[in-house]
Amino acid sequence: MNAIETHDLTRYYGDLCAVNHLSLSVDHEVFALLGPNGSGKTTTVLMLTTMLRPTEGTATVCGHDTVRDGELVRRSLSYVPQDMAVDIKLTGRENALLFARLYGVTAPKDRVDELLAVMQLSDRADELVKVYSGGMRRRLELVQALVHEPEVLFLDEPTLGLDVAARATIWEHITALKKGGMTIFVTTHYMDEADRFCDRVGIISRGMLLALGSPPDLKARLGNDVITAHIDGTFRDPGVDGIMLFAFASDEASFLAENGREALPVLADAFTRAGIKVRALALREPTLDDVFLHTVGTPEEPAGFDQTKFRTMLRRRR
Ligand SMILES: Nc1ncnc2c1ncn2[C@@H]1O[C@H](COP(=O)(O)OP(=O)(O)OP(=O)(O)O)[C@@H](O)[C@H]1O
Ligand SMILES: [Mg+2]
């Protein structure tokens, strides 16, 4: 039995299909669901945490069906929403105690003390949450989420709006929880964080799961070197065989090539012949950002990125 399993999980809002036949197993790992805004990440999490009924399909958490055994599912998980409601008129400790009592935790004070210490909040625990920084609030939300020792933890954009150091701290805690045996399901827009801290990622677009695997696997599946070109003025794909344009944003075009070293001078030459001014041309290894863009497309062309269509569109812009 996997901690989280979904079979054809689907959710419509009226005519809009927000999650489309999602089948997924997640177990004893940090799993990240990635996708553009509005791709169905939060809707998925809401169904898994029993907050929303699926239109079709099923999901289980710790073997319990999210619709039939909602109570058991809720007992085995914790969920920190995208915008969490901590009471800013209470202290950190009071907020945490409130949750501990709601969950009927035995020895709530000791449990809260312990978790406040783990989350490095002990010395600020008796101050009003109103004066907490964003990072402190996030850590307090983790305290609240952990009071009843859940087996599965759902975090919707856990590091959104935090500074670099605060993000690193949150990920340290997430990693420690996983090592302690917890299954953690996160959504994030930060590819670098998913790459560094998550065991596997799933990429969804318009509710459909388009890619699934570990970050190294997904990058390897791209199988190529990436060449980025910074363009001066109007851009179009010079159209060299074997050098595939896969993303273009503002003044940066990204290409995939089997052998980057060999492709670099060929591409430079093609740009010159096409009269396209290039400020810089660089070769690098694929990142999870590249995987993401390759999978879901660029902002200009979000749905199921279609190379032919994209090229036509760029030509039209000339
Ligand atoms: N309560 C609702 N009623 C109608 N449509 C909704 C509702 N909630 C979400 N949607 C729509 O469902 C789609 C998926 O939304 P969802 O919030 O799951 O996306 P998301 O991937 O979490 O986005 P973001 O990255 O911006 O948080 C969007 O088109 C959204 O507008
Ligand atoms: Mg969301």
What can you see in these coordinates?
By secondary structure, the protein is of the alpha/beta class. The protein has two domains: 4-213, 3-Layer(aba) Sandwich (Rossmann fold), CATH 3.40.50.300; 219-317, Alpha-Beta Plaits, CATH 3.30.70. 36% of the residues lie in helices and 28% in strands. The protein has eleven helices and 14 strands. It has helices at 41-48, 70-76, 92-102, 108-118, 134-146, 164-179, 191-197, 215-222, 260-274, 288-296, 307-317, and strands spanning 4-13, 16-26, 30-34, 56-61, 64-65, 77-80, 152-156, 183-187, 200-205, 208-213, 225-232, 243-249, 252-257, 277-284. A six-stranded mixed sheet has the order 6-7-8-3-9-10, with helices on both faces. Helix 3 (92-102) crosses helix 4. The longest helix is centred in the middle third of the chain and has 16 residues, at 164-179. It is elongated. Bound molecules: adenosine-5'-triphosphate and magnesium ion. Magnesium ion is lined by residues 41-42, 82, 156. The site of magnesium ion has 4 residues, from helix 1.
The proportion of residues forming helix, as a percent range, comes to 25-40%
Element-level helix/strand string: EEEHEEHEHHHEHEHEEHEEEHEHH
Total of DSSP H or I helical runs spanning 4+ residues: 11
Tell me the strand percentage band: 25-35%
Q: How many distinct domains? A: 2
Shape: elongated
Task: Give the class-level CATH name of the largest domain.
Answer: Alpha Beta
* Cross-sheet strand order for the largest sheet: 6-7-8-3-9-10
Segments where pLDDT lies below 50 for 5+ residues?
300-307, 309-318
- Rg, please? 23 Å
Q: Label the CATH architecture of the largest domain.
A: 3-Layer(aba) Sandwich
Which homologous superfamily in CATH is the superfamily of the largest domain?
P-loop containing nucleotide triphosphate hydrolases
Examine the coordinates and then state which fold CATH places here, giving the name of the CATH topology of the largest domain.
Rossmann fold
Round the mean pLDDT to the nearest integer and report it.
91
Number of strands: 14
